[in-house]
Every structure is written in structure tokens, then in C-alpha cells.
Design goal:
This protein folds into 2 domains: 159 residues, Jelly Rolls, CATH 2.60.120; 77 residues, Jelly Rolls. Helix content is 10%, strand content 44%. The protein is mainly beta. The strands form 4 sheets. Strands 1, 13, 14, 15, 16, 17, 18 and 19 form an 8-stranded antiparallel β-sheet that branches. Strands 2-3-4-11-6-9 form a 6-stranded antiparallel β-sheet, with no helix packed on it. It binds 6-O-phosphono-beta-D-mannopyranose (M6D). The site of 6-O-phosphono-beta-D-mannopyranose has 11 residues, from loops. InterPro entries: Carb_Metab_Reg_Kinase/Isom, RmlC-like_jellyroll, RmlC_Cupin_sf. GO terms for molecular function: isomerase activity. Keywords: Isomerase, Metal-binding, Zinc. This is Mannose-6-phosphate isomerase.
């Protein structure tokens, strides 16, 4: 078992709720075998899309990016388009700053899981704090950035964006030893483990375990959020305290 150190990263849209000072929009909790981050936006993130594996390998020589959010604080997100659009309309609107009119905005609540496969155009809104798990790739194509002077990748984004509305998928949690599996995809699995007194875990796959709320004890050491560990497959851990953990394991793809 390995304790991982949090890495704060400043972002133009960063808030101050992560406890690492103002402007820290992301705290990277793990980089392998999956990328796990906390995100705290004070402003809208760029309207963006990630490429699927096949496109990313062909065009960038890298794997694609699939991600999911576990919502920690309520707010709004963009999830795909509100109606069918054409590439020409998206290009015209992105250039004119009127893309908002065709984006599907949704309110999300704490505890909600949002799966974002490659191809779904998305954005996180102000105050919508999330735990994010994703394939370890940095491929983000920005369609629109609210006039901020950052690079855009509109043509590549248009090649990979799904232009039909993509309904927000709902998942029924499944019981697993110690908690529940909230999401299973070919790329990763997401778990929630409540801590009420004692919690014993022995995951079958590598597990990135993060304390999100409360206080925990591990072999006499006190842990506070966002303490994060990597457990190897079959490794056993015994925790005490009150609160909850989220866990991320690789998928089968
Ligand atoms: O391009 P910006 O707006 O900085 O957003 C970049 C961020 O987007 C989110 O949706 C996630 O994919 C983060 O892992 C990523 O760092």
C-alpha cells in the first residue's frame, strides 16, 4: 500500500474550496493506474470534448480520455447538446460566442455520478466541486473558452464530438464487499465505501482509495480528506473512523 501526495494545480477557473489557496482549481490525487483529481471551479471550465482511443491513437499517438465525476457540491454542468446540431452550426456558434444556446445544461446534486465517455461535449460550472476519475491522458479539445486567451482546438473537437443529444446515463449502485460500486465502464470502476466504525477492504484489482469526508485511522495514523492510497490487487487494509471513501479501479479494456 502506498500513500500518495496531493498535487495542487492552478487553473484560470480555479476556486479556493480545495484548501490549497485561491486559484487552485485541481488537486491531483493519483496519476496511475488512473488519473484522480478534485476539481473546484469558481468559473465555467472551457466547453470541451475528449477523443476516443481510436482517434487519439491515430492522430496524437496517445490513448483517448474517458472520465467520470462524483459530485461533491451542487451546481450546473454542460452535458452534450440540447438538440441535434451540425458541425457547421457548432463552428459558427463557437466563433460567435453563442454556443451556450445549443448546449444541454443540467443541475447536479451531491452524490450524483456523471459518466463522460469520449465524444460528449461537456463543461463544469461555477461551484460544482467534483471528484474526477479518468484514463491517464491529457487530451482535451476546447471548443469555446468564454473569451479567455487559451488555445482552442475547434477542428479536432468537431471531428470527435457527438452532435446528437446524449442523455445523462443513470446507474444503479451494486453492492460489493465494504460498500457499493457506483459505476462500471470498460476503462474504470468507481466505488463508494462508507466508514462507520470499521472498514476492511481487500480489493481484487488495484484500488485508488480517497477519504472524501470525515476522519479515519490507519495503523494508528490519523487521516483527513483528501488522503489517498494505492492498494495493490489482493492487498488488505483495515480502517477505523467515520466518513466515506471513494475508490477507483481500472476497468477491463
Ligand atoms: O481546459 P480547461 O477548461 O482548463 O479544463 C480542463 C479540465 O477539464 C475537465 O473536464 C477535466 O477533464 C479535467 O481533468 C481537465 O483538467
Amino acid at each position: 500500500m502506498r500513500r500518495l501526495n496531493p498535487k495542487p494545480v492552478e487553473r484560470v477557473w480555479g476556486g479556493s474550496a480545495l484548501g490549497f489557496g485561491p486559484g487552485v482549481g485541481e488537486v491531483w490525487l493519483a496519476e496511475a493506474p488512473l488519473l484522480v483529481k478534485l476539481l473546484d471551479p469558481a468559473d465555467w471550465l472551457s466547453v470541451q470534448v475528449h477523443p476516443p482511443h481510436a482517434y487519439a491513437q491515430r492522430v496524437e499517438g496517445k490513448p483517448g480520455k474517458y472520465e467520470a465525476w462524483y459530485v461533491l457540491a451542487p451546481g450546473e454542468i454542460v452535458y452534450g447538446f440540447a438538440r441535434r446540431v451540425s458541425q457547421e452550426e457548432v463552428r459558427r456558434r463557437a466563433e460567435a460566442g453563442t454556443l451556450d444556446a445549443v448546449l444541454h445544461r443540467v443541475r447536479v446534486a451531491p452524490g450524483q455520478v456523471v459518466y463522460l465517455p469520449a465524444g460528449v461535449v461537456h463543461a463544469l460550472g461555477p461551484g460544482t466541486r467534483v471528484y474526477e476519475v479518468q484514463t491517464p491522458s491529457d487530451l482535451t479539445y476546447r471548443l469555446y473558452d468564454y473569451g479567455r486567451p487559451r488555445e482552442l482546438h475547434l477542428e479536432k473537437a468537431l471531428e470527435v464530438a457527438l452532435l446528437e443529444p446524449t442523455p445523462l446515463p443513470a446507474f444503479a449502485p451494486e453492492p460489493v464487499a465494504g460498500g457499493e460500486r457506483l459505476l462500471q465502464t470498460p476503462y474504470f470502476q468507481l466505488y463508494r465505501f462508507p466508514l462507520r466504525g470499521r472498514l476492511r477492504l481487500k480489493p481484487p484489482l488495484a484500488l485508488l482509495l480517497t477519504l472524501l469526508e470525515g476522519e479515519a485511522w490507519l495503523s494508528g495514523e490519523a487521516l483527513l480528506p483528501p488522503a489517498t492510497f494505492l492498494l495493490e490487487p489482493g492487498e488488505e487494509v483495515q480502517l477505523e473512523g467515520e466518513g466515506f471513501f471513494l475508490g477507483a479501479s481500472p476497468g477491463g479494456a
